[in-house]
């Protein structure tokens, strides 16, 4: 084998290893991004938006974040799917008809 052929083989092997490492890293990143609860609490919403929780609270109060789902008297969650759709559409301004800080309430059947 000539020196040039040996060098080409070594470079090809190195490229294959790097490509496989890249594929593995991308798969891990995608798995981590997709994984997680469907409903986000405030901390999860802040992580998804890459903002501080206080900033997210202000945005909620001003009505700059899609409405959350009230699942208890003091518990609000946000749909991961709706937040992602909102972000993918460029996070457009929300209609001003919704009062700032409003949520959609979920009524539960209470046991007797």
What does this structure look like?
The chain is of the alpha+beta class. The protein has 2 domains: 1-35; 40-105. It is built from 4 helices and 4 strands. A 4-stranded mixed β-sheet has the order 1-3-2-4. The longest helix has 32 residues, at 3-34. The chain is rod-shaped and about 75 Å long.
Short description:
The protein has 112 residues and is α+β, with helices and mostly antiparallel strands.
State the helix count.
Answer: 4
| Estimated structural class | alpha+beta
N-to-C CA distance: 85 Å
Count of all domains? 2
Oligomeric description of these chains: single chain
Looking at the structure, what is the overall shape? Answer: rod-shaped
Q: Give the C-alpha Rg.
A: 23 Å
Strand content is 5-15%
Main beta sheet strand tally, sense and closure: 4 strands, mixed
Number of strands: 4
Uncertain spans: none
Task: Quote the average pLDDT.
Answer: 81
Order of helices and strands, N to C?
HEHHEEHE
Give the strand order, joined by hyphens, for the main sheet.
Answer: 1-3-2-4
How much helix is in the residues? 40-55%
Layout of helices and strands:
Elements: H1 3-34, E1 39-40, H2 42-49, H3 53-62, E2 68-72, E3 75-79, H4 80-88, E4 103-105
Parallel strand pairs: 2-4
Antiparallel strand pairs: 1-3, 2-3
Comma- or semicolon-separated keywords:
13% strand; 53% helix; 2 domains; 4 helices; alpha+beta; 112 residues
């Amino acid at each position: 084998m000539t020196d040039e052929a040996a060098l080409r083989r070594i470079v090809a092997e190195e490229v294959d290893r790097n490509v496989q490492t890249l594929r593995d890293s991308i798969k891990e990143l995608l798995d981590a991004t997709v994984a997680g609860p469907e409903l986000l609490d405030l901390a999860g919403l802040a992580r998804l938006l890459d903002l501080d929780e206080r900033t997210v609270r202000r945005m909620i109060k001003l009505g700059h974040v899609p409405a959350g789902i009230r699942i208890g008297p003091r518990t609000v969650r946000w749909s991961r799917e709706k937040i992602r759709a909102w972000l993918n559409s460029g996070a457009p301004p929300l209609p001003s008809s919704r009062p700032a800080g409003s949520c959609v309430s979920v009524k539960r059947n209470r046991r007797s």
